[in-house]
Amino acid sequence: MEPGVTFATPVPIPVAAIGFRQIHRAAMGMCAFAGQEEGASSPGPGTGRGTAGAAASKGKQYPVMKIEENSHKPNDFSRKLLKEIGGVSRLLEMTTCFYTKVFANPHLEPFFASTEVSHHAPRLANWVAEKMGAPEQPWTRERGSRKQKEATLKQQIMYPNHKGALELEDFLVHDRSSAHFAGWHCPKRAGCPMHQVGDHFKLDDSRVWMRLHFWACREVGLFGPSGGERTKLQVEFENFYTRFIGHFVRIYERSAPAFARLECSWSDESTPDGKANVERYRALQRETPDYMEKRLHGMDDVIGLRDPAEARRRAAEIRDDGWPYSDDGMFVPEE
């Protein structure tokens, strides 16, 4: 989920002649975060926000977020928080819930060739845990083991041949950048409205992703209701994790961080709007068995809304306050 660049459709490369290993090396030149640390840069001039480091220097950096040279680093708070919530196993509950929701969403599902929850959920849980400071480095350890099973990591992508026509090609998915590249070129995207094979993640994709992600946090109890009783740990984790996602979602789309707080509230059923959102979404899936085939995603308020300026205009509560790096106030009030 970073750099402040505009993504373009990939330039045709003679795929058949170079094979999947070379495709991957070529892909790194157009990858959303090639050569940079996660969250390395932000939207830049004209948006009200500079780089992460610049934002932190202009105000009081929120203590749960440690940003060094524009990169997120674990600190004592995040390490303690990881232990208190229950470590990797607790995060796995959340990521399992999250991917179950993703694969039941007609807008996000076409990014994934494989929809096995057990394939994706542990990797995300391990990655989050390591970014929070897990001493056993579960993501690095698991990623290292993939070298022994290359054959199982190949999947097919659609990529332009030397004539510019899309063709199926084997591609090795072995890390986060190659997984994102495979998502951009997933064959499932060819038959979906609002999708185009090769397009990078857009603002609407990122907003739906965050809605389902934060909803999963609520469903497993990592977040508490804003209008009800919640524990200190729930408050602390929501404060940290919403900012954490706000930092890293920039990898997907550089304008997405400003929407993190809004998308977090989407599933807060202790509020009238949050309750209506969730009830409407569940009813769609419950009452329309073929909603996946009909592409009834249930989020018409954001699907297709890709222009950041227009999206911000419609979301009046979006504000330029340096979040998630430099605001003094708590997003979730202390209790």
Give an account of the 3D structure.
The chain contains 12 helices and 4 strands. A hairpin with a 2-residue loop joins β1 (66-68) and β2 (71-73). Residues 1-61 have low confidence and may be disordered. It starts with 14 loop residues before the first helix and ends in a 21-residue tail after the last helix. Strands 1-2 form a two-stranded antiparallel sheet. Strands 3-4 form a two-stranded antiparallel ribbon. It is mainly alpha-helical and 335 residues long. The protein has one domain (15-314). It has helices spanning 15-28, 52-58, 76-85, 87-102, 117-132, 138-145, 176-184, 203-219, 232-248, 260-265, 272-287, 308-314, and strands at residues 66-68, 71-73, 154-160, 166-172. The longest helix is centred in the middle third of the chain and has 17 residues, at 203-219.
Low-confidence runs (pLDDT<50, min 5 residues)? 1-61
What portion of residues is helical? 40-55%
**How many runs of DSSP E, i.e. beta strands?**
4
Overall spatial form: globular
Distance between the ends: 31 Å
How many separate domains? 1
- Find the structural class using helix and strand composition: mainly alpha
| Proportion of beta-strand residues | 5-15%
**Largest sheet data:** 2 strands, antiparallel
What's the number of helices? 12
Strand order of the largest sheet: 1-2
Rg calc: 20 Å
InterPro entries: Globin-like_sf, Globin/Proto
GO molecular function, one term: oxygen binding
Region (Disordered): 37-60
